[in-house]
What does this fold into?
Amino acid sequence: MPDAGRPVPGIIRAAGAVLWRDGGNGPEVALIHRPSHDDWSFPKGRLKRGEHVLRAAVREVEEETGVPPRLGRRLPASTYPKDDRVKRVDYWAARAVADASAFAPFTPNDEVDRLEWLPFDRAARRLTRSHDVDLLNEFAGGPLRTWPLVILRHASAGEKRDWAGADELRPLDFRGRAEAVDLAGLLAAFGPVRIVGSATARCLETVLPYARSEGLPVATDAAFTIGETDADRACRRLFDLVGDGVPTVVCTHGEIVADLVSGLCRELGEKVPEDPALEKSEFWTAHLSGREIAALERH
It folds into this structure.
């Protein structure tokens, strides 16, 4: 259950994905050829300064293939020596969006001159490096189709003691508004989702930039609203949402998030994280397949 979003001092960070689509005879994965290395690999690249790893994964895949991805379950990271340092590449399974043909076609360039979509067996023979073959095997051994359930703690809203009005009207502060804008880009990595939030100004404002950018409605639910609920009620409602099988983000409060994450893991037979709590604007993403958690990650 790695926290892929936090920077690690002294490590070169990169991100990429095993990008897949439905082919005529089964699923196919995208491999790229880099002329400077004369190798075949998965699309990936270094993080820009200050860039979040989720943004980097989406950007690199689209830049190198021309195909917008939707990130799925987390895959094992690859770590190896690089120029007297250590390089870490974080990977995800990623589905090509259904209407990818509407985007710019692949254009060869000096960095990537070929793109091929191959079934698993041919891709394993084409890949240059053994650790990429291991990554492919890990991808092929798990569920291809998963859907995300995001449990999000609202962004920064100052201190309750400094707010004289009704607590449900306490808004995001300057920092929180910036965090909400950043969150819109990160949540978009998982594609459009149903948005359910606490009926408080700070929770609604946290998801508003994402809702506006994706053209999505926001539903409020007392089960996730501080002062209206408790841990048992919140968890029961969360399990109802899981039963729907619909990609969802739940924006709620610090007093509730740890109970939601712990309850979800116990309900679906997953080990509870050592520290399920979240700081403001952090989130857990559970990638679900049926009644199982295929991957759990914190950002």
About this structure: The radius of gyration is 20 Å. Residues 254-268 form the longest helix (15 residues).
